[in-house]
Model the fold of this input.
Amino acid sequence: MQTNASVVSFRSVEKSFGALKVLDGVDFEVARGEVLVIIGRSGSGKSTALRCIDRFETIDSGEIVVCGHRVSDPKLDLRRLRQDVGIVFQSYNLFPHLTIEENITLAPCAVKRISKAEAKRKARQVLAQVGLEDKLNSYPEQLSGGQQQRAAIARSLAMQPKVMLFDEVTSALDPELTGEVLKVIETLAADGMTMVMVTHEMGFAKGIANQVVFMHRGKVREAGPASILTSPATSELAQFVGTGL
Amino acid sequence: MGGSLNANHFMFLLQGALWTVGLSAIALVGGGIVGFIIALCRISPNAIVRIMSAGYVQLIQGTPLLVIMFLSYFGLPAIGIPISPLAAASASLTIYVAAYLGEIWRGCIESVPRPQWEAAEGLALSRTQRMAKVILPQAIRIATPPTVGFMVQIIKNTSLASVVGFVELARSGQIINNSLFEPFLVYSIIAVVYFALCYPLSRLSRRLERHGGPGRLELEAA
Amino acid sequence: MNLNLDFGAILERWPMFLDGAILTLQLASLATILGAVIGILGAIGRRSRNPVIVRICGIYVEAIRNTPLLVQIFLVYFGLASLGLKFSAFAVAALALTINVGAYATEIIRAGFDSIPRGQIEAAEGLALSRTQIYWHIVLLPAIEKVYPALTSQFVLLMLASSVTSQISAEELTAVANFVQSDTYRAFETYILVAVLYILLSLIMRLGFWLLGLAIFPRRRRLRTAL
Done:
């Protein structure tokens, strides 16, 4: 039952790496303005599921629809899909040879063909959103890890995506730097951005998620509102939450 | 010879190819010995020795082999030192190869991890003992792939001995062509022979580079 | 052995040496620029998704790297002639040197491309950049910056190797030397002088590449750090 409000939908999605089934019949749906948090142990398939949304991984069977694009269709126009989807990685992946401003203006100019002046205006705006207005002319290596990750978020925002994907974006950061990144994501959620994220930050997940999907051995073991984290129905989730991992 | 390409031509080319291999061997041994000394001088504790050897490397690496070749073959007789084509070619290649191998090997010696040097020092070994027993055996492993790779350069560079009249592969091609007037055909054959000599070494060098972890000395097995 | 060196007759002919040196630099510059272009295209070809293109680029690189420049020069020289094409010695020399250095540049630049982390490409893909845009904006400059020392050394080696084109009578520095020594019977002095000139040319090229590096890698200029 796909409603118009659905931004991301997975139906019986399966994927294997060789003999290993990493996604084994995964279903979920993300409505507009909703925040979906995927949790699970490493190797549970959560990152793969997220990467399938932007088609960094192709699936073996099932169907994925994102912003009206049939991602599972081999003839999909990848670049159209990716204009609607923003993705932020664990390792920031800012372009080291470009200033922060150039990092942000590159895609809007090259892909959306907007003017340089317009792109620069937009860069200033998104940098203000993540609190880095003063880093416009810095190079990535001059920034702390947390600042780099915020700049990477700003770079995605500049493309005005309809949905944002966050792939363990605080895992590479020192604990004292995760807060500033999570705060930016919270603000985005409050502004109504549709988001799908994989995270290990349980406290953060509780506060921000409209929907939590707990993955275990390639399957959705348990799904529901954030409250499932405090009162899990399955022993696996109970154990997972209990260990804090 | 004359006429069309015949068995005699191929015998002549084979002879030339043998001289190419022979000259390459001379250059490798001669350049290797001098290059090894250069490498040791480059890391000597004595500053003057270091500067002199660095100067040698800079000088030779800034000069074309062809000019060194001309300098030996035409220059030395002009100041009263007669020299045969073989001697001129061997001397030039030795001087040239030494500068490059010296640099390659210095890099290899220096890339032996620092703790190894310190451990050897801690055992109260003398500098010579440290080199011979600890550092060099490890450096040889690191040095094998680039040295095999450089042997390809040596073989190709011996072709320049042809300009001083030494009859190796390239020169034997020129001589055959003088009677055949089929330059494109003749040089194509020459190119194929060089390729047959060089390509296996290139492959070997790459294979060593990929698998050449510690404890593997495939060259000895080969 | 009679070591009474006389550079007088040699130095008198300085305008010829200057012309030769300039021609050598022109040859080297032309082959460097064209060779860099071939190197970039060749490296892209080596990483192409089309196996035929990968194979063709591989054969080009291996054929050039495993045969002597001297033989390549003769092949180009006589090959063009047998096709009935007439070119100046300079053009033939420039062509042969370009083909030669293009193969080495291909391998070096490919190593640079391979050193770009996968995450950089994914980030660019995630921003909807096309394959061409990714090469142009994301991969090319950092890749070249990483291999810049190896690449520029190769171009200096090429300048030195261009002396071989004297064999097809390109009137570069070594050809001038050959002429002067047969004219003056001062072979030793001539080649010593020419060796010094080549060393100077190497230094000039290294300086040029250093300045070029400052111009094309603004990040390095500002931060003084390697990528």
Summary: Chain B is about 80% helix and 0% strand. Residues 213-222 of chain B have pLDDT under 50 and may be disordered.
